[in-house]
């Protein structure tokens, strides 16, 4: 979404989760920028249809920084 805004944190990454839990093996790319629309290419090794949430994840501290439901 062009309305996306992230106020910053160390090591923000993009990945997937299911049932409210981040799945470590889906961490595939750093967050590109802190605001505005972004596009990511999901690696072939990750089947995005298996997940219901996309996360901005802090790899350094293993905590979620934000998430959105996948429709």
Task: Reconstruct the topology from this structure.
Blueprint: E1 12-18, E2 21-22, E3 29-30, E4 53-58, E5 63-69
Antiparallel strand pairs: 1-2, 1-3, 1-4, 4-5
Task: Provide an overview of this structure.
The two termini are 13 Å apart. Strand 4 (53-58) and strand 5 form a beta hairpin. The protein has no helices and five strands. By secondary structure, it is an all-beta fold. 0% of the residues lie in helices and 34% in strands. Strands 1, 2, 3, 4 and 5 form a five-stranded antiparallel beta sheet that branches.
Q: Summarize this, please?
A:
The chain has 71 residues and is an all-beta fold.
Low-confidence blocks of residues: none
Quaternary organisation: single chain
What helical percentage do the residues reach? under 10%
Termini, distance in Å? 13 Å
Using only C-alpha atoms, the radius of gyration works out to: 11 Å
What share of the residues does DSSP label as strand, in percent?
A: 25-35%
From the spread of the alpha carbons, the general shape counts as: globular
The structure class reads: mainly beta
How can the largest sheet be summarized? Answer: 5 strands, antiparallel
Q: Mean pLDDT, rounded to whole units?
A: 93
**In total, how many beta strands?**
5
SS field, number of helical segments:
0
Order of helices and strands: EEEEE
